[in-house]
Amino acid sequence: MLRNTLPAQVGIAGADLTTYQQCYDTKAPKPLLDAVSKASYNSGVRGTPTFVRNGAQLPIQPVDDTKNKIPATTVDQFKSLILTGK
């Protein structure tokens, strides 16, 4: 699917398709993705989305967690966290 169907769905064709398929076949992005994953894990990122301000991870809840009674962060709360860290 990722090698053939996805490129067709997003309009990748011709020389761009050949380049894409070569990258896919040789797993060219893997070293970069591995490095990003390792750096993220080492800096405390355990999921997405993760927001960090001045080195401190912000306590943002993007989706309501009704099972644990944790409401989603509102837009105003998000703005405050980004601007002030509080």
Characterise the protein shown here.
It is a single chain. Strands 1-2 form a two-stranded antiparallel sheet. It contains four helices and two strands, in the order αααββα. The chain has 86 residues and is mainly α. A hairpin with a 2-residue loop joins strand 1 (52-53) and strand 2 (56-57). The protein has two domains: 1-42, no CATH class; 47-86, no CATH class.
List the helices and strands and how they pair.
Blueprint: H1 5-10, H2 14-26, H3 30-42, E1 52-53, E2 56-57, H4 75-84
Antiparallel strand pairs: 1-2
Key features of this structure:
86 residues, mainly alpha, 2 domains, two-stranded antiparallel ribbon, 4 helices
Q: Give the fraction of residues assigned to helices.
A: 40-55%
Number of helices, counting only DSSP H or I runs of 4 residues or more: 4
N- and C-termini, Cα separation? 44 Å
Please state the CA-atom Rg, rounded to the nearest Å: 19 Å
Structural class: mainly alpha
Q: Provide the β-strand percentage band.
A: under 5%
Uncertain segments of ≥5 residues (pLDDT<50)? none
Averaged pLDDT, please? 90
Number of domains: 2
Please state how the strands of the largest beta sheet are arranged side by side.
1-2
* General shape: elongated
- The tally of strands reads 2
Order of helices and strands: HHHEEH
Main pleated sheet: 2 strands, antiparallel
Write a concise synopsis of the structure shown.
The protein has a two-stranded antiparallel ribbon with strand order 1-2.
